[in-house]
Amino acid sequence: MALLPIDLAMRAPRRASARLLWLWRSMASRLLLLTLVFVAVPVLLYDQFQRADEASQQLLLKSAQRQGELIARALEPELLGVDRTALPSLSIALARYGDDRTRLKLLVRPRVAATASGAKAGPEPFFYVAAAPSLSTADIDAERRLLLEQGVLDRLGSSCAGNSTLAMRVPHVEGGEEVLSSITPIKTSFGCWALVTSHATEAYISSSIGRPYWSTPAVQAAAAIYLAMAALVLAVLAGVWRNLNRFGDLARRIVGGDDTPDHEDRNASFAARNTVPELAGVAEDFDRLVATLRDSAQSLRRAAEDNAHAFKTPIAVIRQSVEPLRRALPAENARSQRALTMIEKSLDKLDGLVSFARRMDEAAADLLAPARRRVDLSSLVERMAGGYTGLLAERRLHMRSRIDAGLVVRASEETLETIVENLVENAVSFSPPDGTVSVRLTRSNSQGAPMAELVVDDEGPGVDPANLDRIFERYFSHREPGRGMPEDEAAAHQAGAAHFGIGLWIVRRNIEAFGGRVRAENRPTGGLRMTVTLPLAG
């Protein structure tokens, strides 16, 4: 007993390991894990790629800023002596540095002249001077308004210092986009000049400069491909999972029976429910297996019936032939009389063996292909309980019953009759004279679901506690003279019946096949109680 806590401590890790192993092997768990991976991977990759793109943006913008500075330094000597009359000639100078990919715009904010009173007039705005390649005045004005809205020109005009990078996308007059990459100030006696540099190269257009990283074509294309791949993988796994669920649903319907009037649905096959071509062979194998089991069950039932009929006929002939012999032999011929008695007992045993074999074959057939339908268990038990009136009167026994109405289960009516018959006859066989057999059928929720509970009590000797579980084993039979019954009377009572130890075995096997449970317990006041629980039909 001291090792019990250690054993319990060792069982807990084993149960946890078994649970983890089940979760790992479960398709639902793997599908959930795969979904989490598909969600987590793009988040992680997006963060890393966005950081790399930001670094690439910085390099591009610094390169553009440096390029703008170099062009501004080259233009500065030509801008130092410029006055208002020389402004139109700056387009020729600016064209030397611009091309289709690197586009330049030159703006100027003239110096403010003092008034007669000595006060300065209000600040002049920036004016378009030149562009390379040349653009229309409307396009230049639109770009100037954009710079004003962004506050770039206002910040620049206050000091006319500080080369700054831009990250602005504007539509181009020839179609497409260009990226305003830098604005470089040049301060002269004439005023503050602003050299705006823009690029229309693939490196700038395809980058995320001036827009969110997720809106770039590369990211959107990668996201579309990734989503399509993830959807395809998940759809494949979900399709297999749904297909297996269809198989499971059909298997449960086959085991549980089908009482729908729809002939086509009742004869549905695994192949008809399959939607995955790769599982077609498996579905066909399942259909062949179900057909084989049904054929085997039918063959067993027919063989049991044919064999019983074949054996019963010669047994009946022999039994009828013994009677004339008994009447013809003199009563004082004890040896011949004993021989005839032994023949009759052997015929009784042989008759019992034939019935036993038939019940075994029928029980095996019921397990192979149980035919289930909705059965009113209340009516069945009430009808069978009323059918034992003659047997109870012969054994000098009493019947007490309590049956709730309307309890319906899904099972085979013939098998349920066999179960009730075995339970009641077992109680009758152990009950002493003037005893009472009690049959009770009620509704319960003993297993967390609506159940029908059938209880059969007797007032017999009960069962040795060590054998309570063994009485449901195959071929187990342990009968003793009944309590309160004279030993010679009990022996004579049992001599007329053949007990092969399969009645309760058949009960348990059939009850468990219907999704129920059966247990035996000794009553505190004496006798045995058999309790059967079956799930109620939905």
Summary?
With 538 residues, the protein is of the alpha+beta class. The chain has helices at 4-25, 27-80, 90-95, 137-149, 152-159, 202-205, 217-256, 263-266, 270-273, 280-328, 334-368, 377-386, 389-394, 413-430, 487-495, 503-513; strands at 102-110, 127-132, 164-171, 177-187, 191-199, 373-376, 398-403, 408-411, 436-444, 451-457, 517-522, 528-535. It has a five-stranded antiparallel sheet, with helices on both faces. It has a five-stranded mixed sheet with strand order 7-9-10-12-11.
Task: Reconstruct the topology from this structure.
Layout: H1 4-25, H2 27-80, H3 90-95, E1 102-110, E2 127-132, H4 137-149, H5 152-159, E3 164-171, E4 177-187, E5 191-199, H6 202-205, H7 217-256, H8 263-266, H9 270-273, H10 280-328, H11 334-368, E6 373-376, H12 377-386, H13 389-394, E7 398-403, E8 408-411, H14 413-430, E9 436-444, E10 451-457, H15 487-495, H16 503-513, E11 517-522, E12 528-535
Parallel strand pairs: 7-9
Antiparallel strand pairs: 1-2, 1-5, 3-4, 4-5, 6-8, 9-10, 10-12, 11-12
Helix pairs in contact: 2-7, 10-11, 11-16, 12-14, 14-16
Number of strands: 12
Going by CATH, the architecture of the domain at 372-538 would be 2-Layer Sandwich
Number of helices: 16
Query: Numbering strands along the chain, what is their spatial order in the largest sheet?
Result: 2-1-5-4-3
Question: What Rg do the Cα atoms give?
Answer: 49 Å
Proportion of β residues? 15-25%
Work out the helicity level: 40-55%
The biggest sheet amounts to:
5 strands, antiparallel
Order of helices and strands: HHHEEHHEEEHHHHHHEHHEEHEEHHEE
From the 3D structure, determine the CATH topology of the domain at 372-538. Heat Shock Protein 90
- The CATH top-level class label of the domain at 372-538: Alpha Beta
Give the overall average pLDDT. 78
